[in-house]
Amino acid sequence: MKRSRWWAQAAVSVAFLAGCTTTTGGQANTEGSSTPPTSGGADKTTTGPSESNTSALKPCGWLAESDLRTFGTSEKPKQKETKSYTSCEWRVSKERLADSFTIGITYYKERGVEELVAEGERTPVRIGRHEGVQALGTNKVGCIVSLGITQTSRVDVLIVGTGTSELCPQAKTVAELVEPSLP
Fold first, then answer.
1. How many structural domains are present in the chain?
2. pLDDT digit string, tens, across residues 74-85
3. Residue 21 DSSP class
4. Is residue 170 part of a domain?
5. Up-side HSE of residue 117: CA atoms within 13 Å toward CB?
6. Across residues 79-99, what is the average pLDDT?
7. In 3D, which of 147, 130, 172, 152 has the Cα closest to residue 50?
8. Rounded to an integer, what is the distance from CA 114 to the centroid of its chain?
9. 164 located within any domain
10. 42-60 burial, b if ≥16 CB within 10 A, otherwise e?
11. How high is the pLDDT of residue 49?
């Protein structure tokens, strides 16, 4: 019995390692690295966001752990993915419950900024290379900064908590941290 278990584990290990030995062409992403790439790959020049470079957007990777610690959380994000969106949220717990809030980042694959559901006035914003709007969330709960990726896709940064007027500056700060990761 022990011998068959050992063979099964060995077979799984060999299969796993075999999967790690394939070579993929292209060029490594060395952004943030001090070492330039050494192998040649085809140079790619893009003029703007397209469906091909937005299909793999993952909001859970857009905030660094140091950014999250600045807000007061080190919790793992809650991730959700559907056909139409991918989202991540982090709970920031403070000593007083009234000071606690949730950071939510959602990438809508097929909904542009014009389709944002929000309350009241939409204030135009420009963060980095992206145009968008800032508005209060539905039922005036929280504050949203919505950034256009393409005409038909967007990223929303939503801060939900009490004291709505205090949440909008936080939403804008998070959007500024997220924006460099966007195409």
1. 1
2. 778 999 999 999
3. S
4. yes
5. 5
6. 92
7. 152
8. 20
9. yes
10. eeeeeeebeeeebeebebb
11. 43
- Residue 52 included in any domain: no
Report d(CA 158, CA 143) in Å as an integer.
Answer: 6
The reply to whether the predicted model has a pTM over 0.90 is no
Q: Model confidence over 47-73: pLDDT tens digits?
A: 344 444 544 578 999 999 899 988 888
Q: Is 48 helix (H, G, I), strand (E, B) or coil?
A: coil
| φ, ψ dihedrals at 159, nearest 5° | -115, 120
Averaged over 131-157, what is the pLDDT? 93
- Please compute the mean of the pLDDT values over residues 135-143 and round it to a whole number: 87
> Residues 113-122, buried b or exposed e (16+ Cβ, 10 A)?
beebebeeeb
Task: Summarize the confidence of residues 103-114 as an average pLDDT.
Answer: 95
* Cβ(137)–Cβ(118) below 8 Å: yes
Beta strands in 128-168 (DSSP E): 130-136, 143-150, 153-161
Is 33 part of any domain? no
